Every structure is written in structure tokens, then in C-alpha cells.
Amino acid sequence: WDEPIIFEQSRPGRRGIAVPAAGVPAVELPASVRRAEPPKLPEMSQLHVLRHYVRLSQENLGVDQAIAVGQGTCTMKYSPKVNDRFVNDPKVAELHPLQPDDTVQGVLEVYWRLEKILAEISGMHRVSLQPASGSAAIYANIAMIRAYHASRGEGRQRDQVITTMFSHPSNAACAKTAGYEVITLMPDENGYPDIEALRAAVGPRTAALMITNPEDTGIFNPRIEEFVSLVHGAGGLACYDQANANGILGITRAADAGFDLCHFNLHKTFSTPHACGGPAGGASGVSERLAPFLPGPTVEFDGSRYHLDADRPQSVGKMRPFLGVTPNVVRAYAWVMALGAEGLREVAETAVLNNNYLMHKILSIPGASAPWGEKRLEQVRYSWQGLFEETGVHSEEIGVRAADFGVHYWTSHHPYLVPEPFTLEPTESYSKEDLDEYAAILAHVADEARRDPEHVKGAPYNQTVHKIDQTSLDDPKQWSPTWRAYTRKHLA
Amino acid sequence: WDEPIIFEQSRPGRRGIAVPAAGVPAVELPASVRRAEPPKLPEMSQLHVLRHYVRLSQENLGVDQAIAVGQGTCTMKYSPKVNDRFVNDPKVAELHPLQPDDTVQGVLEVYWRLEKILAEISGMHRVSLQPASGSAAIYANIAMIRAYHASRGEGRQRDQVITTMFSHPSNAACAKTAGYEVITLMPDENGYPDIEALRAAVGPRTAALMITNPEDTGIFNPRIEEFVSLVHGAGGLACYDQANANGILGITRAADAGFDLCHFNLHKTFSTPHACGGPAGGASGVSERLAPFLPGPTVEFDGSRYHLDADRPQSVGKMRPFLGVTPNVVRAYAWVMALGAEGLREVAETAVLNNNYLMHKILSIPGASAPWGEKRLEQVRYSWQGLFEETGVHSEEIGVRAADFGVHYWTSHHPYLVPEPFTLEPTESYSKEDLDEYAAILAHVADEARRDPEHVKGAPYNQTVHKIDQTSLDDPKQWSPTWRAYTRKHLA
Amino acid sequence: MTHPYIPNAEPGVRAEMLAAIGAASVEDLYAVIPAGLRLDRPLDLPEPMASEHELVAHMRGLLARNTDTTEVLSFLGHGCYPHHVPAVCDEVNGRGEFLTAYAGEPYEDHGRFQAMFEYVSMMAELLEMDVVNVPTYDGYQAAGTAIRMAVRYTGRSKVLLSGAVSADKMSKLRDFLDHDVELVIAPVGAGGEIGDVEIDETFAAIYLETPNVYGVVETRGRELADLAHGVGALLVVSADPISLGVLAPPAAYGADIACGDIQSLGMHQSYGGGHAGYIATRDEERLVAEIPSRLFGIAPTAVPGEYGFGDVFYDRTSFAHREEGKEWVGTAAALWGITAGVYLALMGPEGMRELGETVLARTRYAMDRVADAGARVLHPDAVHFREFAIEVPSSDGLLAALRERGIFGGVRLDDRTLLVCVTERHSKDDIDRLAAAVQEELA
Amino acid sequence: MTHPYIPNAEPGVRAEMLAAIGAASVEDLYAVIPAGLRLDRPLDLPEPMASEHELVAHMRGLLARNTDTTEVLSFLGHGCYPHHVPAVCDEVNGRGEFLTAYAGEPYEDHGRFQAMFEYVSMMAELLEMDVVNVPTYDGYQAAGTAIRMAVRYTGRSKVLLSGAVSADKMSKLRDFLDHDVELVIAPVGAGGEIGDVEIDETFAAIYLETPNVYGVVETRGRELADLAHGVGALLVVSADPISLGVLAPPAAYGADIACGDIQSLGMHQSYGGGHAGYIATRDEERLVAEIPSRLFGIAPTAVPGEYGFGDVFYDRTSFAHREEGKEWVGTAAALWGITAGVYLALMGPEGMRELGETVLARTRYAMDRVADAGARVLHPDAVHFREFAIEVPSSDGLLAALRERGIFGGVRLDDRTLLVCVTERHSKDDIDRLAAAVQEELA
Fold first, then answer.
1. C-alpha span between C246 and B51 (Å, rounded)
2. What is this model's ipTM?
3. pLDDT, tens digit (0-9, with 9 covering 90-100), for C375-415
4. Which range is the signal sequence, renumbered to this chain (chains C, D) (predicted)?
5. C318 closest CB neighbour out of B21, B49, B169
């Protein structure tokens, strides 16, 4: 499709939907609050709005169409269609969050049951499903850490958070936003976070260690217990970023390594759809000593009836409106119930097997490597450094060219510690045949890069649009984050 | 997508869905009825089945994506999404057709109300919503005609049905299936069905006239009342094929021209989605004297309660299982309720305006013509005869090439009375801009045909597959209507 | 306000378009319709719902007056069955690309052709027959056409019909066939199967259903096939494809034509809106020639190895030859074919087998429990699949009593006979609940 | 059985893959995890539902214990609003291509970039501001971030907050800001609007909501903007975009940053699951630099006239610079942005105006009727949009009594105060029904 911008399809007088007329006397607004000019929204018939978005959707790649193993760290797995049914049911979609508790016993029970399930998976004492996403759960954890230290009179003293370079940037960024100084541990020569650096960093100013494991490289830190002990020894808390717990479900648990807090992303490990970047869902798990600080309200069960408990004086309060991202709580619960303990373990094992199999295929492509060896769990951060040195083609360019074959990959977060990075995570959802096809596409593009690097650099050739000139996007005089800005700057 | 045949994606042992285990003692089947070999169905995971069909869907063009004005006679209009909501609701989807009447008062009321609405639109006495489609409604009408004449002792005598060449083939074919001899009137020099031919054909053997108006050419027969009178005069019945009534809603009615029976297609005029060719929906309307013969049961209202009446001794009986294609009855009702009398008239007027506007644009393309002049209602059967004579490119080839630009058209039913035909019907759903774009594409292809006819003949270039070699499809030794036949004949 | 469904009703664009074609008003375009035929008043229709919200509220109000089968425990079957509908089936058939497409060419509608080809191909595996049609309306029509195919194929006009067919279907077959086919009804035997039959060289076919209207699986298919073939007639068998994971397909015991309804394969009950019919035969030109429906076949393209699709033997159809084609063809139930394909692909061979075993076992369990509860189960020694009949003092009385308990107990066949349907959706607990209720009511 | 969600759990393929990588078992791959950390027992989880049907039955059973707002007459609002959700919104956000995609590049995910760009662009027209972010989690987060933006922009750490903010939102703002921002709460005036305020050069911003927590439309925006600007502070206004078809956008009276929740624009209530937040500013580099979220901009491609998309000023973000970025960015609520775009495109300027007029009129009508019924309506002289507060003898008592009549009468603010919400979904009859019930209960 060569689909125009929606404003270009507008024709005055057309309408996409009709609105009920008031049917009661109109209200005259004072001039101070009355809108002067109608907003310049598009005017289109209903079919034309629908058609526009259907066409745009066809210019997008979801898990439902693609072999989505390239979005490493994101756990792009199948979101079962049956779970969408539950959340589209009026029994979820048409519930108001402030209804009386006894009219929402079903949804409260789902919250309560999912909390118990995640507590068992993590070994934690309680779990809050309020955070809106993984990063929001990280922030909630920081807020609880802050409240915990404050409750002990150490709020001012403990002003540092330690994290690692291969933990998600939100660990550092949320800590900073919450007022902490951030110390980042770099990987040692084996790819593990440097324990000596931790020893040096830890101390009376340490509020917490925020760490992912396995890190975004797919490398599991075998000395994780020691990391936790070191922090505990200094009076700090240990917080486990389990955004991606897909490879270790039923294998190892946050509590067993001594963590005080952890979080899950419902939209990664627990299959809720990624939705172009949310609505997502986070879960913050805490040990008993952190439980009083959980966001409120909590869902409690008295043996016959579920209710909301907002009377929690030490709580950090609200992280977001109401109880949580309910549709994703429902989906995640249904997903676990479709698998059970044995199924979850099969998820983890298959995710790890798939990853190791894919690694085996990728590393057979000349020019691809996996720094720090081949011991990986659910994902791998690879490098095209070899290919780049040989051909001058960057990883990003390889990725764009691969898109011409219907697949995609993500490089990595900044900074690129692994040079020319690409991060693959096949999860349990893909078949061996998918992995073979994916690897074959990358092998083909790598070969193309060797034979005709300019061709690869000129990609894409088979997408909705051609190579994008990014220069204007960072120039305040030219950038156009809205059509309004664009028309003013470029069409006036 | 280069999506393989589903069998090629199978791997033994995989599964797309799990089935409840019996949980009670198994039953041993006698060998005479036990299946010997498992069926060779594909074995795939759930995501892979979904992905396959999502990809196939993206290789298909629906009203939701395309400017579907090219499927003339089919009234490709917008099917409002809100109406799908109603039929996907368990209150429709999970109703069993043999529930007690008082547990289905809502759906019976919808049937009853839609019957009243269609009776008003057609002027008929009663309407049956049982037929599964337009053709099934034609067959139901024939069945009633047969029962009517039989009830008067003229069943054997009246063994001929008269129709016209520009009425849908099902009029002829259903009459033949019902045991009638078929007489087909050809158009006269003005494109109207030849009234002299009718005079010659009509007589004591005439059971009925089955006629469309406006015919598939979009030409309204102004002498239609005379046609009806001639048939009535000979003791025959007049039956109106209103599969496509889109241009005359609220303008003229079947009963007013004297017809005894008529039918509508819910999936044409009344907006229910075409669904790749059904499920559809038909409605048979009859005058009072034909009412006793309607298929049963009927829906009756006693002032407080709706019920099914199956006690109708002269009824032709069942045309299909149960009451009708309920989801489409619900959709059609909702569509009318969103428009009302004024809205329906706006539908008709806009459909006719759109058609005349499009005709104006099409006839400005050199090589395109509209035999029999420019008086058309909702559609036009055009001809590329001029272009063909000049370039040797057939209408079918023009159509295939146009598909490269994301549009489609249909030629016409056989035989091609209009040479090199194409039939366009823009309905009320498309915008002026759509019509301009559609005409521009055809003008572009016509121009291409003139400049480079071989290029047009070689099309498509921009579709999932390339030019198909049709020869094997008519050769019993080679044809492969299933994968089973294909593997036997071509892969063995 | 310009109606959201009619973009060119906007007065400005309307005027522009009229000007372009040189018409003063839309009235001009209707000049061809004689004044006498013109309706001189607005249609007398209900006031429309001015906004989508009001329409939703209106429809919700109407539909709320239905009690659906998720709100009660329903044992209703008799031609419309409450099997589980996988969510992926709904997802696929809800996609606008399929839902709102129609009859395009094998190029821009390649997806539809392939999906339909795959549906017929999966049915072919299930049926062990090489030719399966693009769906016709429903099992009734499929049966009617299958019988007519046999009539045309043999040139004979007498058909022996199993009497174990529902009254409604019999009504349809009579209407469809009676005027030129003589229908001879075979009695139902004491065991619930077709009774003894006799045919001769004037018969075109024997028509058998399995499981039949009583849920009884016919076991004498091979014998009937031999009988038919012995006199040059065909055996036509109507079978619900959902049973064929465990039951032998008709072709295995010699049937020449198989037919039936595919509603079980992923369609909701929808108050009778989920039906579609299949017809299958072996790949014999003379038999294939008698199929009125479209057949989609695979074909090579200009690119080696690429699969294209197209119509097989189009010349058979009324699209090609009007009344000279075989019966007629038109819009029927294509989307349900695609959906049934999704269903079969999800289930695979093992899923179909397990489903069959579950239904067989639970049906038998239900028969035993209901018999224990005091109802007389008809044909207790026959193999049953999904349905069985019971005799009770009063059909209406028992149904009404069960309804009070939130149970739709079955379909009334006559004053004293009920038909009870059990699928994989009925758990053991559900069946026990029915039995307990029957016991209390009959006590 | 191989689980339908895990294709490579099939033993044959598993063995093949293990062989390919030279591992004896999957256990080998876990060798890196120290034994002491390995869980030596299966997880203690509920028995799974073995089949999709059983899962559906289980979930249906659970959810049946909810009473949803289509089953009663609900006047609940207070941050989550029951506006009509057009079916096309559900259709678009239900499409797998959007629902299951994530964070691809502007090539293979061009559709998402364009849809999101169009969403921010339509919001920009509604808000009359040139810069709008890709949605953050919700209106709470949007407010917190908007205030932090003002703090960073001005380099000051005091903020004047309207007191007419919900308690929950205030809780969030305290948690988010308290550690380094001093929040000064402005009292609510007798008329329901923000009361008299004083600020000086130490203030970074005034934060105002309109309509505020009482449904009162603030009329002194211009005055507050002048006040703020006079001391070099910013005016930050939280406004529900659904009101802006009739109400002046914050930019029109001088606001520097607008923010709020977009749940009203096409999202279901979903027990609080439909929230997403917007932040908008003028196109001033220093202000834009403070936005933590992604911004999607339009850009040229290698083909003249073609529109591509990309991230604007990516360097601001934590993706680019970890803790050196502005706050953090992560997965938030993108799909609700796309959905809100669909909503605005369907509504157009006229639809937004009509909707606003209907809500204004029905809110006033409800205030009058409920006052007639004997409740004391707070702030009766203020302009209200969608909500109003009433004082009654007992909040709990009245709510319980209304519930007996199938009415969720409003949100309890305190022992004697209720907040009543009226949208375009509440017909005149609905309002009359509420008023009649209130009258009887208070009589």
C-alpha cells in the first residue's frame, strides 16, 4: 500500500461515527473556556478510517505473522488467541475499577491467584500486580527500597544504587529518577559483572543492587548469591530484574538466591501481547520484610470473599490508577493455567534449547560471533564485528536488509559494548524450521554483504518505504514530531 | 509471503490444540466402523496454524482494504464492524436453534422486525428469511411457484419458466433443477429484454417469469409492469430477482409493479459481509396469495410474545436447517436500523450517483464503452471491445494487470453477450476520490495496453504468484482439486 | 450530518459529482423509472438509531432477551452441535481480509484460493476421497445434491433413503427431489440402524446417514455398498466429519459419494447460522462432472515451483452454462470452509482421534447414567456417537422440569421421545448433573 | 502430548536439536546454574487446564462472578470513564499485526510508526501544540513527568498543585516527586475551582486540572498562566482530551505543558486496564529536551515524496544514555495511542464538538434532576463536564440502596460526598431513573 497520511484523506463534512444528540437543553459555555476554532481532525467516512488502519496494520510485523526471534531481551512469544477472548468479554472489558468488591469477585480472584502463582515462581512472599510495565515495576521496586531505608532512618544515607551494564537501562534510569546516584558495573573478561567492582562499590551508601540474571547477553552469573550477600552485608537490598525469566521458570528462583525484590514483565515471560509497545504489565515481588511497602491496595482473601485492602500505612501508595493492567493480568493467569508447573518448565527448557540451537546455526555464519563464549540460557547478544571488518557493513544495515526477507532483529541498548551487536531470543514459540529459516536469511544477507556490500547498505528494497534520511530527526529546525509541525516547517 | 501449502509445514507429533480427555471409560469400536489409518492432517503448533492463515489473509483483498467497486452485480459495500459485535456475542453465537421460544425472544424479535422491514421495502405481504443465499431464495421462490400451481391443479401443465439473459444464471439454473423448461429472453436493440419475445413465449405452459430489474447491465426496464401483466394474463406468476436492490431502495417496489414474489440478498443490498462467498443470506418475499406456501416455520407475534409457527400445511417445508442464517439476519437488521427510511433512500441515491459518476469517468477512457447507452442505475456492464480491437488485449488480461495496482474487477457471467465485458458497481460506500483513483488505474492500464500490450498480457507482476497456467485444471488426468489428488498425480 | 456509511452523501461532494456528469439532481438519474412505479412517500420504517452507541444499546436490549447455552446446561443437538470452537478459528474468520472479500481472481485473492484448497484437501484426507467441493449451504443441500448426482450419474430416478433421518431434513429432501425422483424410505431396524432393504436395477442409490438421527453409528456400510454396487447403484453416505477421527470414513466401506454438514468443525451454533455442506467423491471424471459447486485446484504458474490456483472443470457449473450446468452454484458458505480448515489443522490426526474417543466415551457414559436414572434408553446396544434417544413418560413435562433447573435436557422428537446430545464440552459432572435431575424428576 | 504452545517440545525434534548442538540433554544447558540455586522440586502450581475448552470453562466460571456495567446502570467515573467505544477502535487494536508487534524498525513496522505519528498529530490538533509524546502509562505518570519537566526546565524545585486532584493521583505524585520537589497544595475555592494562589520565583510550575476531580471546568487558566509566566514558571495543565471538542485547549490560555489520560478516547474501562498518558508541549527545543518518552517524526526517504518515520531527538532518552537520559522510557501503552488515533479520526471535529455538547448538557441536566430529587449538588454554579459531586446523608447508605435497584450511583469521595459521572452513554431516561431512585431513597 502507498497509504497517505490520514490528514491527506480528509474532506470537510464527512463523518466516521455519529454521536448521540443531547436531547436535553444545551449548556452555553463562557468564552474563557469555549474552544475558539474546531480542531483540524480528519473528516472521513467509517469505511475509510477502517481501511486506512487495516492497510497500516498490513505494513506491520507481529508475532502472528513473523518469525519474531530477533527482538532479543523481549521474549516475543505466542500470545494465545483464546486469552484475548477473556479480556474482550464485557465481564472484563466493561468493569469499572471502583465497583463494589462483591461485584468483581471473579476478577479479584484472578488477581489473587496470579499473585500466588508468581510468588511460587519467584519464591517471594508477596507480589503486586499494579505496575503498568516492567520499567514501572522497577520503579515500584525502587520506591519500596527507598521507603524501606527511610523507615529505618537510613533514607538519606543510602543514596546509591548499583546496577550492571547488561541490566536493562531502566534499572539505572529509574534509580536516577528516584533520586539515586547510579553505579554501573562493567562486565569482566568473561562477560560476568565484575565482582571486584561490586566489592569496591558496595558500602553504607548502598541502597540496593539492581541486577538482571541472566543478563541481556544470555549469560547467567553463577556467583549471583555472592553478589547478593555482598550487598546484604553492607545493609543494602538486592533487587532482581526478571523482566525476562523465560529460561529459568521452575529452574531457579529469585528468593533462593536471596533477593529481597524482583519483578516480572507479564508481556515477556507470561505471554501477554506486546501491543506495539504496551499496554504491558509488571509484577513486583517482595520478601516478607518489604511487604508492608507494597503499592496499594492489595487483594486479600478471607476464605470466602476477596476484597481490596487499602489500609496499609507503610505502603508507597499508588503507582498507577486503580489495581493494575487488568486485561494482561487475566491473560497471564490464563496462560499459566494452560501450562501448569510441568508446562512452565517445558517452556523454560525449550526456550533454552531453541536458543542454543539457534546459536549453533548463527555461529556457523562466517563473520558472526558471540563474545564471551557459548554458555547461554535464553538469548544471545551476537556481534557482526568480523563481518564489519571484512565488508564495512554495519549490524544495523544487515538488519534492515534482513527485513526485506520478512524478518527483523534488534541490535542492543546503547552503548554498544558488544560491537556491531544483534540480540536474538527465540523463546519456546518457534519451531526448528523457523530457526533454520531465520539463520538461513542472516547467512544469506551476510553472504550478500561480502559479495555486494553497497547493495546491503542501500536496503530496504522490499518494504513500504525506502531508505530513510534520518538527519532531520535530530535537527530542531526540521524535526516534525507531528503533522502540525511538519506542515508548518515543510509545507508552509 | 511465500507461504507453503499447509501440509508441507507438518511435523509428526505437533499439536495445535488439546482436547479434553474422556475421564470416563473408553468405548471399544467394532472393526467394521473403526477407522483403520489416522487421517493425514497437518501436525502444527497453534502459532504456526494461526500464522499460516494470517499470512494467507494478507494475500486476499476485502472491502476492508480495497476499492472494491469492480465486483459488479455483487454490491460490495461496507459491512459495519459494529454489526459483527452483535453476532459474535454469545447471545447470538451460543444460541441453539431448538431452544424453547421463550428463551430466544430477542432473536425472534429481530427476525420478525426484519421481515416487517423487508415487507415494507418490497411492498410484499410476507417475507421468509430462511433461504441461505440469493440463489437459495430463488430456489425457494421456484418451489413456492411450483406448489402454488400444484395447489390449483396446474402443476403438470405449467412446466416452463421464462427468464432473461441479463438475469442472474441462478434463475435459469434453479428453474431447471426444479424441473422446469427454461426460456431465456434476449435483449433487444436497446438492451431491454425483448417484450415481443415474451409475448411469443408466454402461455398456458408458463409457470413464471423470473426477472431482474435493473438487469445486470444496470438498465432499468421501464415496461416491467407490462411484462408482469402479460405473464399474469396467461396465468403465470411474476418473480422479481432483487439480489441487488441497492439503487432502488425507497424508490420503487416489487409489489408496485405487480410481482407475486421477489427476493433480496442480505449480503448485497443489506450489507452483510460477503465472507469469501458465504455464509450469505436470502429473503423471499411473497404476495398474500403465495403466503401459505412460504417455507416454515414462520415467526409470529401475538402482541406480547414471539413464537415459531410450524403448523402450515401448504408450506413447501424446509429449505435449510432451522430458521435462517441468523448472524446475517441480525446484521441486516442492525444495518437498516442505523439508516432508517431516509438513510436507505440516501443509500440508493448515492449508489446511483456514484455509478453515473464512475461511468462518466470510465467512458472517457479511449477503448471503453457501455453498450446500450448511458441510462443506468446502480451498475454498468462495460466493454473493452474497442481496446481489444486496437490492441488484442482481452478484458480478463486488463483485469489481471489492474490487480497489480491493488484493485480488481469482474467481467460478467457467461456467455459474454457484451464483448470483452467488465462490470462495475460502486455502491454508496466509496468516496469520489476512490472512484477517481479506480478510473485512473483503468485508464493507466488501458494506456499500457496500447503502448505495450505484451506487458499487460504477461501480468501479474506484483501479486503473490505469477501468471497461472490453467490448462491442467480442465484435464481429468492432471487436475488436482485436493492435495491428495495432487500428490498422487504430480508428486508420486 | 453526513452518514458515516455514505461518504458521498456530503452535500458538497454530491454537487460536484452531479456537476461533473451534467445532472441537475439525482432525480434526473431516476427518470428511467416510470412515474407509476415510483413510491410517492417515504418508506414506513422504524426510527433509526442516530448514533452507534444508541444502536448498540438497542441491540443489547433486544439480545438480552435471549438465554444462551453458556448460561444453562444444554444437551441440545439434532443437527446443530455444541462442540468447542477454538479461538484461532474465530480469529481467522474474523479477519476482514477474509470476512469482507468475495469473488476475486486467483491473483489478488490468492489467500482465499489457497485456504479453500487446503480445506478441501484436509477434508479429503479425513474422508479418504480425492475430490471435495467448495462448501454448499449445509448438510441438507449436500445430501440433496449428492442424491441428485447419483440420479444423474446412473440415469435412474429411484432412491432408497434411510428412514433414520431428521424430519426437517426429510422435508428438504422431499421438496428438492420429489418432483422427479422417487424416494423409497427404508425402515429403522430394532437396533436403531437401517433395517433390511431391497433394491433393484431401477435404483440410483442408497442414502445412509451415520451417525444417524438417533446418534446410532451404522455398521453395515460395506454390506449396503455391495448391495448398491451389485445393481449398478451408488452408495451415498452422510457422515459428520467430526466423527471421522475414530469412525471409518464412508470411502473405506465403499461409499461412492460422501456428504454432510461441517458445522461441528469450528462453527458456533449461532441459532442455526453455522452450517455448510460438503460433498466428496473419488476422482472419476463422470462423477466429478455431476458436482454443481466450484472445485478449487492447484496449478503451475510462470515461475517453476510456484503454486497457483484456479477452478477445476468450470464447465460443469451454472456460472458457465446457466441452466445447462449442473443444478446451480452461487454464494454459499465459503468462510465456514476456511474455518473448518483451520479447525482440522489445529486438531491434526491425534486431536481428531482423541476428540472422537472422548465423545464416544462420554456418550456411552451419559446413556448409562440416564438409564440408571430411570429413563428408557433406546437402542442401548448400538454404538452411539454424540446423541442418543430416550423414552420418558412425557417429553414436554421432563423438558419443562429440567429447564427449571437450568438444563436444556434435549430435543423433543415426539410426545415420549427425547434426543440427548453429549460432546466434549459436557464434562462428567455435567452429565452427572443431568442424570441426577432426570432421576429426581422421574422418581 | 506436545503442548500446542511449544512446537519443539515434541520429543523427536528435541532429540534432533540436542544432537545438532552436541548436548546430551537440556540439563546440560543449565549446567551454568549452581546446584545450590536449582529448584529441586516441581513448582507448586494449580493443576493446569488440559484443553482449551476446559480453560474456557474455567475462565468463564471465574468471570461470571463479576457484574459488569452493561448489566447495571453505572454512574462511576473518577478517572475511568464509560464513553462509547466505537467498534472500529476494537477492530483495529484487535488486529494481530498491531496487537502482537513490538519494537521493530521503521521499515518492516512502518504501519506502527505511521499510526503512532498520526495519533500524536491528531492530539496535536486537538491540543494546538506541536509536540506530543508516544503514550506513557497513564494520566498519573503523565502528570508526574510533566511536572518534572517543568522542574528540570526551570531548575527550580517547588510546584503549586491544584488541590482538586483525586487522592489516588495525589498519592502517585507524592511518591514520584516528593523526594526532591516541594509540593504546595492550592486550596479548592468555594465555587469548585482552584482557589487564590500565590507563587514566586522559587516555583517551577503551577499544575492545574480541568475538568478537575469534581468535574468542574477551571475558568481562570489565562490568569494562572500569566501568574506563572510572570515569575518565570510554567503552567502545566491536565485536561481530558475528550472535552476539547468544546473546551479551549490548555495552549489557548497559555499552558506550556499539557498532559492527561486518553482512556476516554476509545478504550474500554477494563477494570482500570485502558489507561495511557499524553504529554504535549510547544516545539521549543529546551522543552522537548525534557520529554522522556519517544517522539515519532516524519522524515524523507531515498524516494522523493515518500514519507518515512523515525525517532525524534532520541538522545534525550534512557535508551540512548541510561541514567543520563530524562527519567526513563520503556514499554508503556502504545496500542492505546493507536486506538485513540482511530477514535479521533472517526469523530472528526464535528463529532468531538457534538460529543462535548452532549456531555455538557446531560451533566447539567443530571445535576438539576438530582438536585430536584433532594441531594445537595456541590458547586452548582460552576461549569461541569461529565462529573459532579453531591452531598447526601450517607454515601454508603445511598450507594447500597441504589445498588439494590441495579444502579451504581457514583464514587464515594467521603462519608457524605459522592461523585456522579454522566457521559453520552447515559440517556435522558437513565438520568431520570437515577433521579427518581435518589428521590425515593432520600425521601
1. 28
2. 0.97
3. 999 999 999 999 999 999 999 999 999 999 999 999 999 99
4. none
5. B169
